[in-house]
Amino acid sequence: MQALAFHETGDPGATLRLEHIEEAQPGSGEVLLQVLYSPINPSDLHMIRGRYGYQPPLPASPGGEGVGVVVKVGSQVTEVRAGDRVICIGAWNLWREKVICKASCVVRVPAAISDEVAATCYSNPLTNVL
């Protein structure tokens, strides 16, 4: 599968690369998601630059918010099932085609909410100071 990844911190334009990585299988309490949308959050850019409070082990993919469809569920997962559209809370590496995350980190999205809106539901909003 494809992933935007960085192997060292620095300028996003110089360090991010589109690369092929192996698709993982969900373990106990985990789900495999097909990522539909993952917004660019300022925190993602700070993480790539090495200036964020949480720095993942490298190599890593940015992306802390997003919406996706559950492809597979691991054992012990009862909260969601394959085919559910969900948002991710407290997950990382969402700038990938597919991602593994804890089932406890996903919330089903009502059909009335578009993918674009759902992907940004847990992003910090921009503020406009006049």
Q: What order do the helices and strands come in, and which of them pair?
A:
Elements (H helix, E strand, L loop, with lengths): L1 E4 L6 H4 L1 E4 L9 E8 L4 H8 L17 E7 L11 E4 L9 E5 L3 E3 L6 H5 L11
Antiparallel strand pairs: 1-2, 3-4, 3-6, 4-5, 5-7
Straight-line distance between termini: 44 Å
Order of helices and strands: EHEEHEEEEH
Q: Give a quick account of the main beta sheet: strands, pairing sense, barrel closure.
A: 5 strands, antiparallel
How many helices? The count is 3
Q: For the CA atoms, what is the radius of gyration?
A: 15 Å
Please indicate the percent range of residues in DSSP E strands (runs of 2 or more): 25-35%
Helix content: 10-25%
Structural class: alpha+beta
Average pLDDT figure: 92
Q: How does the overall form come out from the CA principal axes?
A: globular
How many E-type strands? 7
Q: What strand order characterises the main sheet?
A: 6-3-4-5-7
Can you walk me through this structure?
With 130 residues, the chain is α+β, with helices and mostly antiparallel strands. The protein is 13% helix and 27% strand. The protein contains three helices and seven strands. It has helices at residues 12-15, 42-49, 115-119; strands at residues 2-5, 17-20, 30-37, 67-73, 85-88, 98-102, 106-108. A five-stranded antiparallel sheet has the order 6-3-4-5-7. It is globular and about 40 Å long. The protein starts with a strand and ends in an 11-residue tail after the last helix. The model has no long low-confidence stretch (mean pLDDT 92).
